[in-house]
Backbone:
């Protein structure tokens, strides 16, 4: 069915470990790791000799094309160029991403107006399917009842203050998941490098208290995306609707990307508070993530994508469990020596 949303992932700052795990020493005997370590630093020092300096405010995103890559940064990354333009342009929002953010703010500020708009759409509904003019049919699981429920919710909802701004760091965390899973046809909140929401947020800044991630597939316009997040068809808890109207959230990030199975996907993250790292560090991390995801998500033996929760780590690579074998005797290994990036069993 079109326009189907996934479940929300919520995290609480107090429930997340503050420790930073490093890569193991590959010069000695090692154990095949079934639980991934954090592959990206959760904090990047602001400047050498000033590890405790306060993060800089969020950089303003320019609508003009940047003149060139930042000093010391690599040139154009093929992965970034194929999805979001040159590597030095990855911090710009698209027009549609800005429209999604603006629609969320309009829904929070004027819920009754949104209720009227959804009510007008019901005239195009026949059974469990919308037949909008010049658009593909949109099927829903719960029929007209879920839309009537959403209309009643909006008419009883008190207007809320608009979100303060569209956060650069939150949007980059959204983009990591959208770029990673979209081009591989995967759904869900876990990246192919087993990164979850706290790990993605930690790449780009310091987050406070709660954060909430939402994903929607197959819809094209910003208005359709926000309406479906409010209606929350097929999600009994109505968590997407609840999170959009949480009084405490102040920031949001948005990313929209192509999806090889569902055509489009949109990732939205709300946060109570988030402080981005300075602009050069955001650029550096985004480039690192693009290269890392491209490398770590493919098994070095068979060159196929390793799905989340279905791999083991050895020699700084993620393998299918049946592919992680000794390069000499081909037996499955649990402990190994590494030689030129290749695992060998102890025998």
Residues:
């Amino acid at each position: 069915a079109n326009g189907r949303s996934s479940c929300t992932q919520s995290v609480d700052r107090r429930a997340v470990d503050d420790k930073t795990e490093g890569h193991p020493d590959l010069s000695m005997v090692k154990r095949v790791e079934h639980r991934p370590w954090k592959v990206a630093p959760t904090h990047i020092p602001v400047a050498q000799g000033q590890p405790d300096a306060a993060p800089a405010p969020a950089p303003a995103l320019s609508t003009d094309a940047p003149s060139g890559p930042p000093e010391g940064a690599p040139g154009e990354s093929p992965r970034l160029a194929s999805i979001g333009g040159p590597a030095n342009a990855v911090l710009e929002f698209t027009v549609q991403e800005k429209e999604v953010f603006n629609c969320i703010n309009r829904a929070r500020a004027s819920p009754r107006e949104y209720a009227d708009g959804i009510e007008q759409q019901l005239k195009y509904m026949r059974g469990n399917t919308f037949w909008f003019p010049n658009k593909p049919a949109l099927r829903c699981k719960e029929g007209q009842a879920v839309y009537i429920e959403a209309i009643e919710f909006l008419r009883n909802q008190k207007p809320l203050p608009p979100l303060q701004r569209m956060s650069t760091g939150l949007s980059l965390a959204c983009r990591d998941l959208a770029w990673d899973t979209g081009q591989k046809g995967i759904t869900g909140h876990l990246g192919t490098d087993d990164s979850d929401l706290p790990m993605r947020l930690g790449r780009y800044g310091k987050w406070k208290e709660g954060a909430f991630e939402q994903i929607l597939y197959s819809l094209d316009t910003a208005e359709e995306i926000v309406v479906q997040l409010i209606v929350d068809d097929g999600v009994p808890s109505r968590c997407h609707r609840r999170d959009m109207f949480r009084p405490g959230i102040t920031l949001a990030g948005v990313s929209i990307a192509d999806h090889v199975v569902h055509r489009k996907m949109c990732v939205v993250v709300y946060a109570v508070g988030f402080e981005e790292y300075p602009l050069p560090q955001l650029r550096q991390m985004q480039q690192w993530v693009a290269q890392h995801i491209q490398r770590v998500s493919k098994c070095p033996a068979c060159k196929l994508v390793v799905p989340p929760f279905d791999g083991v780590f050895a020699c700084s690579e993620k393998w299918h469990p049946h592919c992680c074998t000794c390069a000499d005797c081909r037996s499955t290994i649990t402990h190994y020596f590494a030689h030129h990036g290749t695992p060998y069993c102890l025998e």
About this structure: The longest strand covers residues 263-276.
